[in-house]
Amino acid sequence: MEWRIVVNGDRHERTGMENELSRVVDALPGLVWTALPDGHADFLNSRWLEYTGLGSEEAKGKGWLAAIHSDDMPHLLEHWETIVASGEAGEFEARMRRFDGAYRWFHFQASPLRDPTGRVIRWCGINRDIEDRRRADEAVRVLEGRYRAIVDGLPAIVTLLSTDGHVEHANRHMLEYLGTTSEEMRDRAVGQAFHPDDRPEVLKRWSHSAETGQPYDFEARLRRADGVYRWFHTSGFPLRDSEGRIFLWYFLQTDIEDRKRAEALLFGEKQLLEMVARGDSRSAVLEALCRFVERTASDCYCSVVLADSSGKRVEHGAAPSLPSTFINSIIGRPINLEAGPCGMATYLNEQIISVDLTSETRWPTWCPMALKHGLQACWSTPISSADGKALGAFAIYHKDPKAPTSLLQDLIKQFTHIASIAVERVQNDAALKRSEALLAQAQRISLTGSFGCYVATDEHFWSGETFNIFGYEASANISFKLILERVHPEDRPSIEQAIESAANGLGCDCECRLLMPDGTLKHVHFVAHGTRDHSGRVECIGAVQDMTAYRRSEEALGRARSELAHVAKVTSLGELTASIAHEVNQPLSGIITNAGTCLRMLAADPPNVDGARETARRTIRDGNRAADVVARLRALFAKGNTVADTVDLNEATREVIALLLSDLQRGRVVVHTELAGDLPAITGDRVQLQQVILNLFLNASDAMGGVEDRPRRLRIRTERAEDDHVCLSVQDAGVGFEPENAERLFDAFYTTKPQGMGIGLSVSRSIVESHQGRMWAVPNEGPGATFSFSIPCRPARPIGVNSVSAIRPAAETDAQHIVRTL
Q1: How far apart are CA 24 and CA 28, in angstroms?
Q2: For residue 131, how many other CB atoms are within 10 A of its CB?
Q3: Is the pTM of this model over 0.90?
Q4: Helices and strands counted in the chain (H then E)
Q5: pLDDT given for residue 88 in this prediction
Q6: What letter would DSSP give residue 189?
Q7: Is 772 exposed, middle or buried (0-12, 13-18, 19+ CB in 10 A)?
Q8: Nearest to 260, CA basis, from 195, 204, 320
Q9: Contact, 449 vs 469, CB < 8 A?
Q10: DSSP of 136-156, one letter per residue?
């Protein structure tokens, strides 16, 4: 460009100024150019030329358009022509090709240069490189796009508010929920869509957050496009710039309608269950349930009908909002298919839905009555017990035809469940009270009490009859110490042993005496077993029965039996003696007669030897007859031959203990066993050996029958003895015996008991000796005695004995003596 400005003829000075101005233009941070009034370029600075690679003459006029991107050409020409035509400054953007062929975005600015008359004499312009800014803007747009996609995809309502409360942006969910557009949202006032009851608090909290910058947090109802209000939880957070100033508010609104409904249901259910737990009447609980349903479901009436005790007719449960005339028309109806929806639901035990009673044909007598009261829909659901039995029906009525939605069906299911809990609880409580009354009466009649206890913590739970048996007040603080104080001192060891057994989780079955405050005695029988609760604690559960009357009757019966047995023994012995005398008397009489005859014959003169010889033969015959009589008597009392077999002496002993345990407990005998674990088996007759053990046990129990000043302990012990023998000992704490009488105890018919026969120990020793063993008795160092026997594990010869034949009758010996004498 060449400017020729001549002032005062000083051409040289002006040329210097032009050069200086050209250097200034080239130093500007942009591509500078000028154009004629028609828009044709007449000057481009060196930066412009260097960037595009075009020459100065080449770029003049319209040549500079060669550096513009073809896609931007129409847009650029349109804007440039508009600016030239308007004569006003303007700007636009387009891509310019660099000398290396790369295109970059430039911002074009053009301003007119006017003469004093205002006419445009030239255009001055500058192009600035905005490629980096454009890329940054594009990146921002991409991010904004992603942000919008993310925000629109969130399962919540998101809005951006300016600091003055105007909506800057609302995501898709918000627009769809409110049924509006982004433009309409910008014109909405803050809080406009909230429920009128919630709006004042919404505005108050927003004002507080806007003034203080504190986050916003509130729950309120928001109106949906269809006019339905739903609960939302709104959280608002301020967005700040680099200097900490709030320039935007970000709000997140989450639908909590289901949670609110669940909370309301849970609260209502809790209140109803609390009423049930308090023992409120069934009618009060059911009426509260109906009112709760009517509040929750809205625009409905609720009722509950129940099956009567026969299960055949309907009885009233609750219906707080239905007219009494309608309720009375239902009560007493039979439970069948024609009784109406409630009767049918109870009868079939399934839900019955009638959407429109005006077109209903199933209940021709019930429907007109319901329609008369303005009811046009009924949903009846059976109330079922835990075992599936229909207890009644829960019904919801509407004034307009209506079908239950899935949400309402879920609510009905919950309501029906609560009703079943209430009804069944009341019924169960009534049944439980009847059962408790019957149990208490049965315990009083049978004199039986129940108890439970935690042994480790000494916690006790007694029934009323247990307190009566022990003679304690129901308010007494029961402990093991208090229990043992009531137990007779002699029986405390056995009870302590039972407590120890219970502490180990084992059972116990024992009897003891209670010493009452007035000095009387009670006989009681304990039965208990140990178990563990859910926390692993040992719990003892059992029963105690007052056996005093039974024991007195048993003792009286025992005395009667003893007397009867004594009489029977005496009678039997007399009959046996008479029979033996009769049988033996005949041959003995013959012997005496024949002996006298023989003497007379021998005394004759001369002696009648032949007659005496014949008489002697008859005497021998009669002696043999007497021996045969005794032999027949022995055969009569003999049991049979011995059976030898392998015998576990420990097992045989346990069987005898089990057989006698109840008798020993009645005699207050405490049994202690010390059975050797390594005891070998023996060979013998199991029945006969158990007869020996049984006899020793009974003798020991009888020996302690009159002991009152010490525990009645019976100790049984087995062990291996020398010479491959096994030994069993029975030690008692009875009256004992004198050492000099030790051997006489085993003699036949020797006894120290008033009612004894003196047979048992004699037979027992014979049985043991037949097993090639021995039996003996020794007095204890203290009270009582110890009876023992030992038997070889493998006998050296066959065994065999008859328990009765072990007694050697004197009659047999005498008969044999007679024969030998004759």
Answers
A1: 7
A2: 14
A3: no
A4: 23, 27
A5: 93
A6: P
A7: middle
A8: 195
A9: yes
A10: HHHHHHHHHHHHHHHHHHSSS
Tokens of 160: 């951006």
Under 8 Å between Cβ of 220 and 231? yes
Structure confidence by residue, pLDDT tens digits, 363-405: 998 999 999 999 999 999 999 888 888 899 999 999 999 999 8
Q: Beta-carbon neighbour count of residue 480 at 10 Å?
A: 14
Q: How far apart are CA 737 and CA 690, in angstroms?
A: 24
Tell me whether residue 687 is exposed, middle or buried, using C-beta atoms within 10 angstroms of its C-beta: 0 to 12, 13 to 18, 19 or more. middle
Distance CA 31, CA 527 (A): 113
Residue 433 burial by Cβ neighbours in a 10 Å radius (0-12, 13-18, 19+): exposed
Query: Between 609-637 and 810-821, two packed helices, what is the crossing angle to 10 degrees?
Result: 160
Q: How many CB atoms lie within 10 A of CB 808?
A: 12
The DSSP letter of residue 581 is: H
DSSP β-bridge partners for residue 660:
none
Please report the pLDDT score of residue 570 as a whole number. 55
Provide the pLDDT for residue 577: 61
CA atoms of 110 and 31, how far apart (whole Å): 12
Q: Give 359-396 as a DSSP string.
A: G--S-TTHHHHHHHTT--EEEEEEEE-TTS-EEEEEEE
Distances in Å between the alpha carbon of 354 and those of 76, 357, 375, 415? 74, 6, 11, 19
Alpha carbon distance 661, 315 (integer Å)? 58
Asked whether 512 and 488 are in contact (CB, 8 A), the reply is yes
Token code pair at residue 441: 């009466």
Q: Given CA atoms 504, 507, 512, 514 in this order, what sign does their dihedral have?
A: positive
Q: Which residues pair with 529 in a beta bridge?
A: 541
**Cα separation of 800 and 790, whole Å?**
17
Tokens 């009567």 belong to 308
Low-confidence ranges of the chain (pLDDT < 70): 1-23, 557-586, 625, 628-643, 748-750, 753-758, 796-822
pLDDT digits (tens, 9 = 90+) for 53-96: 999 999 999 999 999 999 999 999 999 999 999 999 999 999 99
Q: Are 412 and 388 in contact (CB under 8 A)?
A: no
Nearest to 522 by CA among 466, 574, 569, 476: 466
Q: Give the whole-angstrom CA distance, residue 800 versus residue 709.
A: 43
Closest Cα to residue 194, out of 219, 173, 226?
219
Q: Is 476 helix (H, G, I), strand (E, B) or coil?
A: coil
Give the H or E element holding residue 239. strand 229-240
Distance (Å, whole) CA 266 – CA 414 = 10
